[in-house]
Structure formats: structure tokens, C-alpha cells
Design a protein that fits this description.
Elements lengths: L7 H12 L7 H20 L4 H4 L14 H15 L15 H8 L8 E17 L3 E7 L5 E7 H4 L1 H10 L5 E10 L5 E12 L14 H6 L1 H7 L1 H23 L3 E2 L5 E2 L11 E4 L4 E5 L4 H9 L4 E9 L11 E10 L3 H20 L3 E3 L5 E3 L5 E4 H9 L16 H11 L9 H13 L7 E7 L15 E9 L2 E8 L4 H16 L10 H9 L4 E7 H9 L3 H4 L12
Parallel strand pairs: 3-5, 6-10, 14-15
Antiparallel strand pairs: 1-2, 1-4, 2-3, 4-5, 7-9, 8-9, 10-11, 11-18, 12-13, 15-16, 16-17, 17-18
Helix pairs in contact: 2-4, 9-10, 10-12, 11-17, 13-15, 14-15, 16-17
């Protein structure tokens, strides 16, 4: 027999060992197999067999892909409850107070052995269970981890009810207790139950709460992580607080939040490889949104002068510590602003989110280090800083009459330094690759990197005084890019030129180049005011504020499915 206190992870590992040579089954076949086993266990219980007799630990009849022993036992308990007329998943239990409310009211106010006549109805997940002779103890926790002790006594509820409690209740169940608030003989705040009821029967065992969760369990089963790891629950709450803070700051600056399409006929707004899908009703191919930019700018054309969106974007690219194929992006556009005014707004957004979610501009990262978002933020120029690193001046490509540093020379420098080169390259791409080689992971304090090559920024206004450069900045924090900002391009003729250049790159094999969006060009032709715009990854903002990886900041990260066998 399996140890009843065996953790979910240990049981899963045992089960995996037994399924290595199991037959391949389709999803439907496997689901039907489990249903048949559930029916067999219930039939055994209905025939009067005991819990131990109702299950088959060896799975001789159903094979290695059927329920492991612990799950079978819980399925049998569910069946026994139904047989005895007890609902394992009731619609309602009479909760009168949360565990947190009980603790807030009574913590520190009762001495050991004190009893009150205050009756409460509470519910929570069973995280600890000790069954004694005439007295059982449980630890119930609400969603945020706040816990309280429950005491179930034969004298209070009767022998039959206590026997049923011992037989039915498992770790992980949601349990309702009604009873008086007391302090145990050891001084533990407790609810002395006069009534108990299972609020939801858990068929799967919990992980061992005293052990560190494996990365696989934490990533593939985040709901388990939320139960077992306070840090994971805290990340969900901190993320919510950060997003709420961002919205509040925008509201204070009279920005309107809008929603733009996820399905788009033309992919644009960023240089990225899109996901494609097909719409049967129109019989057309569509792209999942890589950025909302071109639609938010249409709002500026329409007279919504300050607009933002917190949205889901999809990019069919690599996965690493700061990249995910599905991620949350903040984009905002302000009419009559520019990349200087938008930089001030982004700093305010980040500083206020740190204050609102963490209480200070100084945050403590997961590794214990402190990071300060307060004070002045550094600003550097991309071309000036690259020239300094190389020991020679790198000149922007200002057009036919002022070509700047040649592609050939930049390529020679890249080859000499061992910098990776793209299949389709130009002056701007090589400049950015070279700059990243020297600086990308070395800018630890908050730093605005300003004035990018025109070739890599097709939606940005040319610099007002520097040929070949656009008014764009990237914000680097702790060695990675956190946000980007622009003086937005609003000249439809120049925008068409940029789109054509992008389309030619696409024809040459650049899978990240944008298509020509004629509808957007027509919108620009109606007239878009000068504007500043920004994009910032919400996941990356959480990385910056906590020191976590991107998977740890995303509540439900995408993972590659495991084979059934």
C-alpha cells in the first residue's frame, strides 16, 4: 500500500516509472479508461465493499495508465459519500467569516484554554490533518495562505460523525467547519467544531508542503504552486497590484483604455515573426497580434488624444528568461507629446508601480539584492556609446549624400568581434548588433538608450537634427530591455517609404519584417497629430521589480505538452 502521506510529486514519479512501457493511447481512449475505473470503484462501494477492497493498487485490470493508488482511494471516498447521501461538491456551505477575519478579530486576545461563545462558519483547504482517538486536528488555509486550526471532538459532534470525518477527509480537501472560537490548551487560535462538511473533495493528492517544488511542477501545474508556495501566490498578487497601479497612473493623466483586435489581416506594429491562423467564415488567413500600435494610432487619428492598452501579444519566436511566445504588453500614445515627454511618463509609471506594489522605490529581488528605481535615470546615445566602445566614430546612414559608416565596414567589425549577423542585414541592424555586443547586458541601473538607426525603426519619426537617426529610446534595467519609446511617425508619405523598405526585406527573407498596411496609411492620410508613444512588457516589468524569470511572472506559462504514454 502507498503511504497515505506520500506527496503528489512522489506519487507521480512512481506512477511515471510504472507507465514507461504503457501502450500509446489517444486522449479520448485515456479519458474513457479513467471513467471506466471510476465506475468500477463506485460499483464496488455500492456493493458494500470497504475502501481498501474497492480499489486495485496494482491496477491489474486497468493497466499502468489508470489512476494511481492514492487517486483510486479518493475516488472510492467520493463514491462512499454519494452512497451515504453526502454531497462531495455541495452548491453552498454556510460560511459566515473568512479565516483572515477570524484571525484579525481574535489574534492575541485569547489566552491558552480560553473559550468564547462566538460561533463562526469558516472554510479552507486542509493543509494538515492529525486524527487522534477522540479528538482530530486540522489546519485550514484560505487562498492567501492565512490559516487556522480546527478541532473536531467526539464529545462535540458524536462518535458516528467523528468516524465519518476520519474516513472521508484528506489533505487537500476544502472543508467547512462551524463552531465556537477558542484557544487550545497550547494557546493556538482554533475553531471548535460542532459541525463539519466537505466543501469540495480533492481527488488528487497535494505535493509535500515542506519540500521545494520542482520547476516542472511549478510551471506545468501553477495551481499546485499557488497552494504550496507563498512566493507564487505573492507573485500573482504583486502582478495584479502593478497592473492596477499602471491603470491608476494613466487615469491620472486622462488616458483612455481601449481594446484592439487580436486577429489582424496584416501583421504590424513591431518587427517580429507572427503566428498565423485561418478564419473559416471569410476563408482568409489571419495573424495573431504582435503589437497593438497601428490600431492605437488610429485612435489618435480619430481624436482620442491619450490612449493606452494592456493586451496579450503573440510572437512566434524563441523562449528564454525574458521572452515568451504569449506575453502581456502595455502600449500608450499621447498626442502632442514626443519621446522626451513619454520617457517622463514611463519613469512615473514604473516608480509608482514600485511604490504601490512594494511600498518603496527600493525593491528586494529574489536573490536578496536591493534595486533602486528612485533618483535620476541615466541617458546615453546609441551611436556615441558604440563609437566610444569601438574607438572609432560610427556615423549614421543619412541617405545617398551622407551614407555614413558602410555596411561592409560594419560587417568586418562584426566578424572580427564574433558578432552574429542576420541573413538580411543593413546598416541599422549591424549597428544595433554591435551595440548589444558591448552594452546590452551591462546596463544595470535604469538607462535610456537614445537615437536609433532609421532602418530598424520604421514607425518612428526621424530625428529633428541628426540625419539617419530616429527619435527612439530603449530603457534598460538590470541588463535587459524593459521598455521602448518614440516620437511617432505621422507623415504618410515617409511611412509608405518605410513600409516598402520593410516589404523588400521580407521578400529577401527577413521573417520579422512588416507588411504594407494600406488601411493604416489611409488613416495617417486623414491626419494624425504629433505624438509620443511607448511599449513596455508587463512580464518584464515584474522581472525588473522582483528578479524572477519570465515564466515565474506569468501565472499560466505555455509549456510543451508531455506525451500521454
Amino acid at each position: 500500500m502507498t503511504n497515505p502521506e506520500q506527496s503528489a510529486e512522489d506519487a507521480a514519479e512512481q506512477h511515471t516509472q510504472h507507465t514507461e512501457d504503457a501502450p500509446v493511447m489517444t486522449t479520448v481512449e485515456h479519458a474513457e479508461l479513467l471513467l471506466e475505473q471510476d465506475k468500477k470503484i463506485r460499483s464496488n462501494i455500492d456493493e458494500g465493499k470497504s475502501l481498501d477492497e474497492a480499489i486495485d493498487p496494482s491496477n491489474k485490470e486497468f493497466g499502468p495508465l489508470a489512476h494511481p493508488e492514492q487517486v483510486q482511494m479518493r475516488v472510492a471516498k467520493r463514491a462512499l459519500m454519494l452512497k451515504e447521501g453526502v454531497q462531495p461538491y455541495p452548491v453552498h456551505v454556510d460560511v459566515t467569516a473568512t479565516i483572515g477575519e477570524v484571525r484579525a478579530k481574535y489574534d492575541g486576545k485569547l489566552n491558552a484554554g480560553d473559550e468564547t461563545q462566538d460561533v463562526v462558519g469558516i472554510a479552507g483547504r486542509v493543509l494538515f490533518l492529525r486524527n487522534g482517538g477522540g479528538l482530530c486536528f486540522v489546519k485550514l488555509a484560505q487562498g492567501d495562505g492565512t490559516a487556522i486550526q480546527g478541532m473536531i471532538s467526539k464529545k462535540e459532534i458524536g462518535a458516528d460523525s467523528l468516524k465519518q470525518f476520519k474516513q472521508m477527509v484528506d489533505l487537500g480537501d476544502h472543508l467547512f467547519l462551524k463552531g465556537r472560537v477558542i484557544a487550545s490548551k497550547t494557546g493556538e487560535l482554533s475553531v471548535f467544531a460542532s459541525e463539519w462538511r466537505i466543501a469540495a473533495k480533492a481527488l488528487q493528492p497535494l505535493p509535500a508542503l515542506h519540500k521545494e517544488l520542482s520547476d516542472d511542477t511549478r510551471t506545468r501545474k501553477p495551481y499546485i504552486g499557488m497552494i504550496a508556495d507563498e512566493r507564487i501566490r505573492d507573485m500573482v498578487r504583486k502582478r495584479s497590484a502593478v497592473v492596477s497601479s499602471l491603470r491608476h497612473t494613466f487615469e491620472g493623466h486622462d488616458f483612455l483604455e481601449v481594446e484592439t483586435p487580436m486577429l489582424q489581416t496584416v501583421h504590424g506594429g513591431a518587427a517580429a515573426r507572427p503566428f498565423t491562423t485561418h478564419m473559416n467564415a471569410f476563408d482568409i488567413d489571419l495573424y495573431l497580434r504582435i503589437a497593438p500600435e497601428l490600431f492605437l494610432k488610429r485612435c489618435l487619428v480619430g481624436g482620442i488624444d491619450r490612449v493606452f492598452e494592456i493586451n496579450r501579444d503573440f510572437r512566434n519566436e524563441g523562449v528564454d528568461a525574458t521572452h515568451a511566445p504569449e506575453f502581456t504588453m502595455l502600449e500608450a500614445y499621447q498626442a502632442y507629446g514626443n519621446y522626451d515627454t513619454i520617457a517622463a511618463l514611463v519613469k512615473e509609471l514604473i516608480v509608482k508601480s514600485a511604490l504601490d506594489a512594494f511600498g518603496s522605490t527600493k525593491v528586494t529581488l529574489l536573490n536578496g539584492e536591493e534595486y533602486d528605481f528612485g533618483g535620476e535615470w541615466k541617458t546615453i546615445s546609441m551611436y556615441d556609446s558604440l563609437s566610444e566602445a569601438l574607438g572609432e566614430e560610427i556615423i549614421p546612414n543619412g541617405g545617398p549624400d551622407n551614407p555614413g559608416t558602410s555596411v561592409e565596414h560594419l560587417g568586418e567589425i562584426a566578424d572580427k568581434l564574433g558578432v552574429e549577423r542576420d541573413d538580411v542585414e543593413n546598416h541599422g541592424k549591424l549597428v544595433e548588433h554591435l551595440w548589444e555586443h558591448f552594452y546590452e547586458d551591462k546596463l544595470y541601473e535604469p538607462t535610456f538608450v537614445r537615437d536609433f538607426p532609421v532602418e530598424t525603426s520604421p514607425l518612428v519619426k526621424s530625428h529633428r537634427s541628426k540625419p539617419g537617426v530616429v527619435e527612439k529610446w530603449d530603457l534598460y534595467v538590470r541588463g535587459f530591455e524593459l521598455a521602448t519609446g518614440y516620437s511617432e511617425l505621422n507623415d504618410p508619405v515617409v511611412q509608405r517609404e518605410r513600409f516598402v523598405a520593410q516589404a523588400k526585406d521580407a521578400l529577401a527573407g527577413d521573417v520579422e519584417a512588416m507588411d504594407i498596411d494600406e488601411d493604416f496609411l489611409e488613416a495617417l492620410g486623414v491626419g494624425m497629430p504629433p505624438a509620443g508613444g511607448t511599449g513596455m512588457g508587463i512580464d518584464r516589468l515584474l522581472i525588473a521589480l522582483t528578479g524572477a524569470t519570465i515564466r515565474e511572472t506569468i501565472t499560466f506559462p505555455l509549456t510543451k505538452p508531455l506525451n500521454l504514454q
